Structure formats: C-alpha cells, structure tokens
Amino acid sequence: MSSTQPPQGFTPTGTIASPVDRRRVVFATVVGTTVEWYDFFIYATAVGLVFGQLFFAPLGENSAVVAFATVGVSFLFRPLGAFLAGHFGDKYGRKVVLMWTLILMGASTALIGVLPTYEAIGIAAPILLVLLRILQGISAGGEWGGAVLMAVEHAPRTRRGAFGASPQIGVPLGLLLASGVMALMAMIAPGDAFLVWGWRVPFLLSFVLILVGYYVRRRVEESPVFTELAARKEKAKTPIVTLFRKHALLVFIAALVFAGNNAVGYMTTGGYIQGYSTNPEGPLALERGPVLWAVAGSAVTWLLSTLAAGFVSDRIGRRTTYIIGWILQLAGVFLLFPLVNTGNIWLLFAGLAILTIGLGFTYGPQAALYSELFPASIRFSGVSISYAIGAILGGAFAPTIATWLVKETGSTMSVTWYLAGMTLIGLVATLLLRDRSGIPLGPDHEAEQNISPIYGMAKA
C-alpha cells in the first residue's frame, strides 16, 4: 500500500471535506446531464413528430420506421464515445472529458436546428441529419460515465445512492425540458408553422443551455479518487485493454442490467409513444400538444421515483432496490398500452406515470451500482462501456422494433411482450451480481475491488 497521503482537502475515505463542494458537485452533475439529455431527447421527440415528413418523405409509409432507425444509429456510436471517454477519463481525469462531451452535444444539436430539409437540398438532408445524430451518440457515450463518477466518487460511503441519483435525474429532467419546450412550440406555432419553423427553436435553444452547463461544470473540482490516482502515479496505461482482459463478463452482465431499463424507457425518450399516439393515420390521432404535456408530466414522476430509488438503495442495498424496480416495471409494461389505447389523454398520462415508477427504481441506483462494480484505475472505462453496450442492446432500436411489431401484427400486445422480455433480462442480470454497496472506492482497495461481483466467479 502506498504511503502517499491523499491530496489536501480530502478525507482518507476519498470524499470532499466541504459540504459546499459536495452541493456544487451535485448541482453541476444535475445541470450538465440535464442539458446533455435535453439535446439527445429533443431529437427523438422531433423524430416522432416531424422528421419522417421533413427528411424521409420519399420513403412513403416506411418514413416513420426509417426516421426512428436514425434514433438507434446514434447508439451504435455510443461505444466509440465510451471507449474514448473511458480511455481519456482514466488517464487525464473525469472533468476534462465532461467539458468536451457537453460542447460536442450542444454544437451537434444546434446545427440540426438550422439543417435544410429534404425538399430544400434532397438526399443531403437526411445524410447530414444522421451524421449530426452520430456526433450526439459519441457525446452521450462519454457523458454518462464521467458525470456518474464525479457524483459517486465525491460522495460519503453511506450516501452514494443519493449522490449517484443526481446525474440520473438528468434523464427525466432532460425529457421534461424537451417535451415541455416542444409542447410550448406546438402552441406558439401550430399546424404547418410547426413543420416550417416551430420544431427548430428547441434545437437552437441548446446553444444557450450549453453555455450554462459549461459555466457550472468549470467550477467543480476533479474527482478525489482520480486526484489520488494521479498523485500516486497509479493511472492505468491501457485501461480498456485491462478492462476486457479481466472483466469482460462483468461488462456484459452490467450492460444487460441497463438494457432491461433502457428498452422500456425509450418508449417515451425515443419518441415512440409520441409518434404512435399523434400519428394522423393511426388508431388514436391525438393532438401533439396534450400528448407532449402528458409525456412531460410523466417525466416528473420518473424524476421523483429515480431520486427515491437512490435514497432507498442506501438503506436496503442496490440489488434489492433493483429487484423491487423490475417487479414494478413489469407491472407498468402490462398496463401501458391498455391505458394509452383508450385515446383518453389522462389515461395515457396515467399509463406513462405508472411505468416511470418502475423505470425510476431500475435507474436511480445505477450510478452507485456501476461505480461499485469496477476497480478505481479502470472505473471510467468500465461504467462508460457497460452503459454504452447496454444502450445498444436496450433502447437503440426499441422504437424501431415497436413500430415494426405493430405494423406486422396489427397489435400493441406484441410490443408489450417485447418490453416484458427485456425487463426479465434485466432482472436475471441483476440476480447474477452480488451487492457491493459501500465497498471502498479508492486506489488503496484495488485488490478488494478486483474480486468479481459475479456469483460463482473468483478473482478477476
């Protein structure tokens, strides 16, 4: 064990001594991830409402399926973002990576807001749209791991779940903001005006949000665990190689945990429910505005359940919290479409709200769970790559699959069984993992951290 002392200002357990600094970290992770996910979800919301018509109109009845596929394309590039962010985050720090992911996401989103449509520039329009979506995917792949580690590695040992929930609520907050802004623009620019210019305003707003996020993140100190690693010169030279050589199976199982949540969550964050319920040729043909407000309302229940799950996981452990969450999520899956298909906007909201309770309990503890699975020197790579792979296996093409299933079967029941299957996969993956709540996260405890948390496995 090294005799080098931790940097001044940090306790021996690797947490910030000042409560003011802790609050600053929580605030910065919430603001930063909210801005990132607003950018990411505003695209998915627009896909469900206008992109099929504006960028893929020549494809006719297949335009919606192809438009939703562009949501999934970005997920294929999340691992690239995760690999890059994991490598540089484990070598040069969490903070610098978070600054660059924020800028990349914001610039890509703002450029979509000024992109000409197919009618104006032909095939170049959807090509440029997909390229910008790919850049969003690279940014999203690197963002989550850094935000999570900044929150959890700053947290007291007994409050990692609560601190880790701060970047997690960036997802429902981003969805709330994206849906709310889109709903507002649907009121300001109704009908054809929304197709002409109204949808562009939320994308252009990203430029302002990115300045706010950048300012807030600059004021946050680097993660204490990385600072200690750097002081001891114990940073991994090839963190990704080490990760897959020692922990490949763990990465896959952790990815399946997230896939079970992500596939279900992308019914709203991927824009599927919005597109399904407002399609003028569909069975419901509801107005855009009320549906967007219903989605925004469900984002509030998602936020509250995510926060609650983080706190609960500090009391009863990550694994137990997850198991409760999978049961709640499964119930929400079977209630979702029966309520949505009534065509009543209040029952649609009820279906989404019930679903988000389970989603929150299978998402709130994830930051702490992932951080406690991997050793300090390769932790950024481990959490980022597991998250990115889970996103591909889960939400990447969930809206596309749902659209195809309804088209082929003529019934949303097929989508329900698909989502139920993904939920059960997440449950099984969770049962394969030991609970490591409270395990020391600092570099002094790498030997303990390297013991595999998978049942039946010895040292990695």
UniProtKB/TrEMBL annotation:
Entry membrane topology: Multi-pass membrane protein
Keyword Transmembrane helix: yes
Principal localisation: membrane
Pfam families: MFS_1 (PF07690), Sugar_tr (PF00083)
TM regions (residue ranges): 40-59, 65-85, 97-115, 173-191, 197-216, 249-273, 293-313, 320-339, 345-364, 385-405, 417-433
Subcellular location: Cell membrane
Keywords, comma-separated and alphabetical: Cell membrane, Membrane, Transmembrane, Transmembrane helix, Transport
Upper lineage: Bacteria, Bacillati, Actinomycetota, Actinomycetes, Micrococcales
Protein name per Swiss-Prot or TrEMBL: MFS transporter
Gene3D superfamilies named among the record's database cross-references: MFS general substrate transporter like domains
Domain Major facilitator superfamily (MFS) profile: 25-438
Keyword Cytoplasm assigned: no
Native source species: Microbacterium yannicii
